[in-house]
């Protein structure tokens, strides 16, 4: 099943993910984790907006909530897009090995498959930035949710990075593939540590009760 993946129940989606089918796979799981991460950002904001204590950051909270909703919708769309992107690649691998067009078809399909995981990484990077902003404004009661969101976003970012590499590795002489790898590496090196730091900051604040 590919169409309607995000309309499945949690149990149904997990069953599809566990099944012996090519999609959904790691990319779709990364996108779903990213969507959950940014949803927790929204949860923290929605429990903070309207409280007199946080009136001075009301406008900023609403800005983050607006952006977070867009990122959530985008990541859910990428769950479906990742599954759809795999179909041409699967079809190319089914071409008989003796067919001279097989290698070219596989490489063409891989180029298409590279697009979705880098988009997942971009969205997860955005989610981490939003969680950082939310962590500095949200109600102190929502620290654990911000921290959980950051942990999920970091995991999603790392998972999507692996998915980028599994596609680009099949294109050893393609400059576009190398460019995508470099972009993916930058996100991993810069944003994953920031997400980890946010998790630690929220945990420390919870421990201290500050």
Automatic annotation (TrEMBL):
InterPro entries: Cyclodeamin/CycHdrlase, Formintransfe-cycloase-like_sf. SUPFAM superfamilies: Methenyltetrahydrofolate cyclohydrolase-like (SSF101262). This is Cyclodeaminase/cyclohydrolase family protein. Residues 9-185 form the Cyclodeaminase/cyclohydrolase domain.
């Amino acid at each position: 099943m590919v169409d309607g993946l995000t309309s499945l129940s949690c149990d149904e989606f997990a069953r599809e993910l566990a099944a012996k089918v090519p999609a959904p796979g790691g990319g779709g799981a990364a996108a779903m984790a990213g969507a959950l991460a940014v949803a927790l950002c929204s949860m923290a904001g929605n429990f903070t907006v309207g409280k007199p204590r946080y009136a001075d950051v009301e406008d900023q909270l609403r800005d983050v909530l607006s952006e977070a909703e867009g990122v959530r919708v985008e990541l859910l769309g990428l769950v479906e897009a990742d599954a759809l992107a795999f179909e041409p690649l699967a079809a190319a691998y089914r071409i008989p090995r003796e067919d001279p067009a097989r290698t070219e078809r596989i490489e063409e399909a891989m180029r298409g498959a590279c697009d979705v995981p880098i988009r997942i990484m971009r969205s997860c990077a955005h989610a981490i930035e939003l969680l950082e902003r939310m962590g500095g404004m949200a109600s102190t009661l929502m620290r654990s949710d911000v921290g959980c969101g950051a942990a999920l976003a970091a995991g999603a970012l790392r998972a999507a990075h692996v998915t980028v590499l599994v596609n680009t590795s099949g294109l050893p002489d393609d400059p576009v593939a190398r460019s995508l790898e470099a972009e993916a590496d930058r996100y991993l090196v810069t944003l994953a540590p920031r997400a980890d730091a946010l998790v630690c900051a929220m945990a420390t604040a919870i421990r201290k009760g500050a």
